[in-house]
Amino acid sequence: MFFISDTMAGAAPEILKAVEAVNDGLFLGYEGDPVCEEMKAQFAKIFETEVSVFLVATGTASNALALSVMTPPYGAVFAHEGAHINVDECGAPEFYTQGTKLAAIKGANGKLTCEGVRAALTNFPKGVVHRMQPGGLSLSQATELGTIYTVDEINALSEFAQSHGMATHMDGARFANALVALGCSPAEMTWRAGVDVLSFGATKNGALMAEAVVFFNQDLVGDFAYRQKRGGHLFSKSRFSAGQFLGYFKDDLWLKLARRSNDLAGRLEAGLMELPGYELACPVQTNQVFVTMSRELVLRWQEAGAQFYIWSGDPAQERQLVRLVCSWKTTDEQVDQLLEVARG
Amino acid sequence: MFFISDTMAGAAPEILKAVEAVNDGLFLGYEGDPVCEEMKAQFAKIFETEVSVFLVATGTASNALALSVMTPPYGAVFAHEGAHINVDECGAPEFYTQGTKLAAIKGANGKLTCEGVRAALTNFPKGVVHRMQPGGLSLSQATELGTIYTVDEINALSEFAQSHGMATHMDGARFANALVALGCSPAEMTWRAGVDVLSFGATKNGALMAEAVVFFNQDLVGDFAYRQKRGGHLFSKSRFSAGQFLGYFKDDLWLKLARRSNDLAGRLEAGLMELPGYELACPVQTNQVFVTMSRELVLRWQEAGAQFYIWSGDPAQERQLVRLVCSWKTTDEQVDQLLEVARG
Amino acid sequence: MFFISDTMAGAAPEILKAVEAVNDGLFLGYEGDPVCEEMKAQFAKIFETEVSVFLVATGTASNALALSVMTPPYGAVFAHEGAHINVDECGAPEFYTQGTKLAAIKGANGKLTCEGVRAALTNFPKGVVHRMQPGGLSLSQATELGTIYTVDEINALSEFAQSHGMATHMDGARFANALVALGCSPAEMTWRAGVDVLSFGATKNGALMAEAVVFFNQDLVGDFAYRQKRGGHLFSKSRFSAGQFLGYFKDDLWLKLARRSNDLAGRLEAGLMELPGYELACPVQTNQVFVTMSRELVLRWQEAGAQFYIWSGDPAQERQLVRLVCSWKTTDEQVDQLLEVARG
Amino acid sequence: MFFISDTMAGAAPEILKAVEAVNDGLFLGYEGDPVCEEMKAQFAKIFETEVSVFLVATGTASNALALSVMTPPYGAVFAHEGAHINVDECGAPEFYTQGTKLAAIKGANGKLTCEGVRAALTNFPKGVVHRMQPGGLSLSQATELGTIYTVDEINALSEFAQSHGMATHMDGARFANALVALGCSPAEMTWRAGVDVLSFGATKNGALMAEAVVFFNQDLVGDFAYRQKRGGHLFSKSRFSAGQFLGYFKDDLWLKLARRSNDLAGRLEAGLMELPGYELACPVQTNQVFVTMSRELVLRWQEAGAQFYIWSGDPAQERQLVRLVCSWKTTDEQVDQLLEVARG
Fold first, then answer.
1. What are the φ/ψ torsions at residue A311 (nearest 5 degrees)?
2. Count of CB atoms situated within 10 Å of the CB of D88
3. How much is the pLDDT for A314?
C-alpha cells in the first residue's frame, strides 16, 4: 500500500522499450540528433503550434530554467505559496534566476487568483528602483494539492500577467493528469490560454527521467540554450531523454497512464467518503487525494502498513492532513486494500 | 567512419539491461533507494575506501558542482587552459561556484605542472583582499588531449595544492580509459594520490547518462546535497542512474569497454604512423588520437566520408590538428577503413 | 514642512568638520589607516566588547553583506514582512547571499515574534534536502514603523534563533533613535541580548554617508572582507567614512541628534492626538509618526505644502496611512507649522 | 617620500569645500536631487553629448556594474591580463556579472591589441553552446602601467569589438591623467572613439570618494539603476557624491590636478634616467613611473625611508620592478628628495 508519491513507481514498460529502440546509430547528440528532431516534431503536433523544446533532468531544473529567462535577477515571480518552486526545490529558482524573489500568494485549493496576484503586485511598483520588479507568473497544473485550473482561469491569470508586462509559466509536472481531468486539448490548456512557457513533466507519469521545457512564446527563448548548458542540463546522449518522450506519446500512452491514476484516486475518494472520520481537504481532480483524519486513524493506517505522506507539519494536531497519491502503476487491488484498512 | 566523439555511440547492451533490471519495486528515490545503496557500496568497494557518491546528469554538472564545494565564490581554480571546465562548459563552473575564476595554465600535452600552478599562484596571494584567493586545483584524467598523468604526477600536484590550502579535483569524464592505460588501481589513481573529489563519468564509456561525484575527502562533502538539489540534479527515480553504474561495474564491463576503445586508438595510431604526412600532436595514451595533417589530406578524408573533429581553430592553416576518438562501439573494421582512406 | 524622510537633511556640521579634520596625512587606506583604527577603537569602547567593524556605502549594502556571511545561498532568512531587507532593497540581500529566500513574517507594529518565526520555520525543516534551510534571523531596531523591540524581546528572538542554529542580525539604520528611546546601553541592546552582527547606520542621523557592519560574534566574520571588496565596498580613502564616525560619536553627538528627532516626533504625535480625525497606526517610539487620516485631510495637508509619504499603497482607500519623519535637522517651528495645518 | 599610490593623499581642499557647499537644503536624494542634476549637466557638457550618469562608491563597483549590463553571465569580457578588473578586484566583475569569464590577454605596455583580442576570440565561437560567448571589451585609460592608448588605438579596438557584437568599456580610474597626457577632448577619447560606457574616477585624482558610471550608448543603460541599487550603491544623500564632482570640474580643477601629478612623474623619470642602474619598464605617460633596479638599490631606497610598491612578485629576482606614483599632492620637493636617494 504505497501512496507516498507517483515517483515511487518505476518506468512504464512501453517507455523502457522506446529507450532501447533509440539505442542504435551514431549521433552527435546535444539535442541535434534525429531522435530529438522526432521528439520536437511530436511536441509541435501535440500542441498544434510551433514550439521550442529543451530537455532537462528534473522538474526542478525545468521550472528554474524556465523562470530564468522570464524574470530579471531583481524580479519577483508570483506563485502560490504552496507551489513546488516556492517550497520544494531548495532554492533552485533563486539559483537559476540569480536572486529572484518568489512572491508567495495564498489561494484556496492551492490555486492562484488574479485578486491574490493583484494584491501582491502592490509591493512591486514598476519603475521604483528600491523595489524588486514584476518578473513573471507561475501556476501549477495540476497544483500541489492535485486540483486544476479551468481554461478560463488560466486565461484570466495569463491576461492579468501580460497586462502587467509579465510572462506566464506553467509547472506541468503532472500535466497529463490535469489534461485528462480537464478534457481539453493540450493547446487549449496552454498557449491558447496565454501560457508562454511550460515545464512538461513525464517522470511522474511513467518515464524514467524525462522533463522538457516547452516554449510557446518564441520571443522568450532567447539564450535558454546557454543557460541549459551552464546548468549542466544539455545531454550528450540526448536521444535517451528524447526517446522516452517518443514512447510516452506513442498510442497516447501518456493519456492512458494519467487516466488510470486519476481514476484510481477517484475510486479512493469515493470509498473514503462513504466512511465516517474522513474529510476531503480539497476537491479530488487528478491523481491525488488530500484527506483529513484523526491522529488515531493515521496511526491505525500506519500500523496496517499503509505508506503515505503526512502533509501538515504539526504532529501535535488532532486532525492530520494526509496526502494519498496514485501512480500509473497503482492497482485497483491496492486501492481496495487501503480502503479496507480505512474501514478499520 | 565516425570518429568525432565517444558520445556518438549509444549505450552498451549490458547497461541497458541493468536499467531494465532495476525497474521493478516501489522506491522513494532521491538517492535513498536500494539501487543507490548498492551502487554506493560498489563505489566503496572499487575504490577500497569510504566514499560519498552523488549522481548528476552530465559531466559538466559533475565538475561544476564538485568545484562549488571546494572554492569560495572569490576563489581561483587552477586548471589546464585546455581543460573541459575552462573551455567547454559555457561557464557552468562559474555559475555553480557563483563567480570563481578559472586560472588557465599552459602545459605540454594538456597536462598541468606544479611549476605552472606555482607561477599562476603568485597572482593570488593569500590574505590580500584585493585578489581572488587560491580556491582549488582541477586536473583531468585522461586529459582533453587523451594523455594521462602518472600516479606520481597526480601525487605531486595534489601535494602542491594541499600545501597551498587547496583541495584537488579530478575530472574523470574518461576515468576508465585512463585507468586501464595506467594499469593501476582506482584507489592508486585517486585518493591514495591525494585526490579529494572525483567527477566519475560513465556516459562516454557506454552508459546512457550516468555521472557521479565521488568524495574521498569527507570533510569536503559539506552541503553538497543541497547544491545538487538546487542545480536540479537530484533525481526522483535515481534508481535509473544508479542502475547504469551497476551494469557498468558488473563483470568489469567498464574496464573492458575502455580497453577496447584504447586498443583501437592504438591500432589507429600505429597505422597512421606508418604513413607519410601524419604527425602525432601528442602521445596516444587512451582512446583519442591527435594528429596533424595537411589541409589536402583533411579534405580527402572528408570526401571519403570520414567524420572527425578539426581541433585547431584556424581553417587557413596549412597543417590541421585533427582529433580522432574511438568509442566502446568502434570496430576494428572501422579503424581499418579509416586507415584505408588515410593511405589514399 | 518636509517630513518625507530623515535622509532629506544634509550632514550635521560637526560631522562635516570631522571629515575635514582627517584630510591631512598620507595613508594607504582600505581600512588600514589610523583614522579607521581610531574609529574601530571607538566602536569597541561604545559597545564595551571586541568588535570587527567594516565600512560600507549604504544601509542596503550593510544589511546584504551582513546576511551573506550568516546564511548559505539555499538558506531562508526570517524577517518581518515590512523589513527594509524584504521590501526596499531591490533584492540586494538575494544578490549578496546569491539566492537566499527572505521568509516574510507578519507581526503587529512591524515587529517579529518568536511565534511568527516558529510557524514559518516549519516550512524549512532541517536536513530535508528539498527545502531551503534555516539561514538566519534579522530584526530591525528601530523597525520600519518606528517602533522598538525591548531588550527582552531581542533576547527572546536571538535565543530562539540560536536554538535553531541561526545567527541574529540587527538592521540598525536608525540604531541611535532606538537606543535613546530604550534608554539602555549599546551593549545591552545588541550582543548582551544575543545579536551577532549589526548594521550600524549613521547616515539617517546626520552623517553624509556612513554605514558600518559590526560583528560581535567573531566566528561569523569569516571571509567578510573578501565579500566587501567584491561588492565594491572597500574604500581606498576609508578615512573619509571613518572620520564621519569620529564626528558622530564625539561628545555623544549621535545620541543628541537622535534625541532631538525623537522628541520632535513625540511633540508631533501629542499635537495630532489632540485633534479629531487623526489616529495613530502604531505607537510613536522613535522619530517616525504613522497616522491615519481621511483622504480629505491628506489633500488639505498637501495643498498647504506639507511633504510626507503616503505609506499605504491604495489611493482609493478612504483612510490613508501617512508617515511623518523628523530628522536631526527638523525644528520645533516646522512641527508647529505642520500642526497648524493639521488643525485646519 | 610616499610614492605607493595616488590614493594615499586626502582630498583637494576645493573638493572638500564643494562638499560643504551642497550641505544645505532638504532633498530626497537617490540621484534625484538638484546637486545630481547639476552634476549630470556638467558631465553632458564636458563630454559634449547626452550621457546617463550613475554614482557609485568605488572604482571596483564602477567597473563591475558597467560590465554587468554589457555581458551575459555566460559571456567572456576581453581585457588585458594586468587590468584592474582581472587582477585587483577580488572577483567583483564575476560577482556583478554573475559568472562572466575575464579573458586575459597579453600585450606590451599593459595595452590590448586587436590581434590579441582576435586570437582570444577563437576560444569563444558565436553560437556554440558549449562555449562562453563574446561579452564585451574593456580597456583601461590610463592602463595599470600608466601608459595610454592613442585615440586611434581606442577607435580600432572599439570598432573591432563592435564588429564582433561587443560593446566597449573604458576603465577610467585615472581618466584625467590620460586625458591631459593625450591632449584631446573628453569626447574624442571616449564616445567619438567608440567607447560605450566609461568608469569615470575622481578619487585617485583628489576626490574623497567619487566614482561615476557614464553611459554614452544609451541602449546599454537598460536596467542599470536596479543593478546599482541591488549592489548597495544608490546613495540616499547622493548630493555628497555629486558635490565632489562639482568641485572636481570647477575651474578645470581635475585637469590641473592631473597635470601636476603627470608633470611630477615626468620630472621623476627624467631624474632617474640620468642615473646609472635604473631602467624604465615602460614609457612614462601619466603619473606613474615603472622602473627596474637592483635589489641593492631597492634596499637602499627603503632604508632611506622611501615608500613604494614592488610590482613584481618574486623577491628573489636580482632586478626588481618598482612602481612610483605621484599624486595631486606630491610636491617638487618630495620628488627631488627621492632623486637624492636614488643618486645614493
1. -75, -40
2. 18
3. 67
* Strands ordered across the beta sheet of C52-56: C52-56, C211-215, C197-201, C168-172, C133-140, C75-80, C101-105
SS3 D182: helix
Are A309 and A178 in the same domain? no
Name the helix (H) or strand (E) containing C288. Answer: strand C288-294
Q: Tell me, what amino acid is at B175?
A: F
- Taking the CA of residue B8 and the nearest CA in chain A, the distance in Å comes to 5
B187-229 pLDDT, tens digit per residue, is 999 999 999 999 999 999 999 999 999 999 999 999 999 999 9
B236 touches chain A (CB under 8 A): yes
Transcribe D241-291 into DSSP letters: HHHHHHHHHGGGHHHHHHHHHHHHHHHHHHHHHTSTT-EESS---SSEEEE
The reply to whether B20 falls in a domain is yes
CA–CA separation, B113 and B110 (whole Å): 10
Which chain B residue's Cα is nearest to C226?
B129
Question: Least CB-CB distance to B230: which of A24, A90, A234?
Answer: A90
Cβ of C98 within 8 Å of Cβ of A98? The answer is yes
Is A72 in contact with D226 (Cβ distance < 8 A)?
yes
Q: How far apart are CA C167 and CA C169, in angstroms?
A: 7
Does the pLDDT value for residue B313 go beyond 60? no
- Pairing mode, strands B211-215 and B52-56: antiparallel
Coil, helix or strand for A102? strand
- DSSP run (H or E) holding D295: helix D295-303
D175, D43: one domain: yes
Residues whose CB is less than 8 angstroms from the CB of residue D324 and which lie 6 or more positions away in sequence, other chains included: D3, D265, D268, D288, D289, D290, D291, D308, D338
Chain centroid, CA C157 distance in Å:
17
Residues of A in contact with B203 (CB under 8 A): 236-237
Round to whole Å and give the CA distance between A131 and A135: 12
D130–B89: do the CB atoms touch at under 8 Å? yes
Radius of gyration of chain B measured on its C-alpha atoms: 20
User: How many beta-carbon pairs under 8 angstroms link B with C?
Assistant: 37
Is residue C5 in some structural domain? no
Identify whether D307 is part of a domain: yes
A167 preceded by cis ω (within 30°)? no
Residues facing residue B53 across a β-bridge? B214
Q: Identify residue A307 by its one-letter amino acid code.
A: Q
Is the minimum CB–CB distance between D90 and chain A shorter than 8 Å? no
**Contact call for D232 and C23, based on CB within 8 A:** no
d(CA A23, CA A242): 11
Tens digit of each residue's pLDDT (9 = 90 or more) over D227-276: 999 999 999 999 999 999 999 999 999 999 999 999 999 999 999 999 99
Around Cβ B35, how many Cβ atoms within 10 Å? 25
Q: What per-residue confidence (pLDDT) applies to B1?
A: 84
Q: What ipTM was predicted for this assembly?
A: 0.97
Integer angstrom CA distances of residue A240 from A236, B203, C154: 10, 11, 56
Which pLDDT does position D313 carry in this prediction? 57
Chains touching C by CB (3 or more pairs below 8 Å): A, B, D
Give me the residues of chain A with pLDDT under 50, please: none
DSSP class of residue B327 equals: -
Asked, for residue A322, whether it belongs to a domain, the answer is yes
In our burial notation (b when 16+ CB lie closer than 10 A, e otherwise), range C65-85 reads: bbbbbbbbbbbbbbbbbbbbb
Q: What secondary structure does DSSP assign to A199-220, as a single string?
A: EEE-GGGT-SS-EEEEESSHHH
- Domain tally, chain A: 2
Same domain, C42 and C187: yes
Q: Which of B224, B252, B280 is the endpoint of a domain?
A: B252
Measuring CA to CA, how many Å separate B145 from each of A12, B5, B67, B109, C87? Answer: 41, 13, 22, 7, 52
Average pLDDT over residues B147-172: 98
Size of chain B in residues: 344
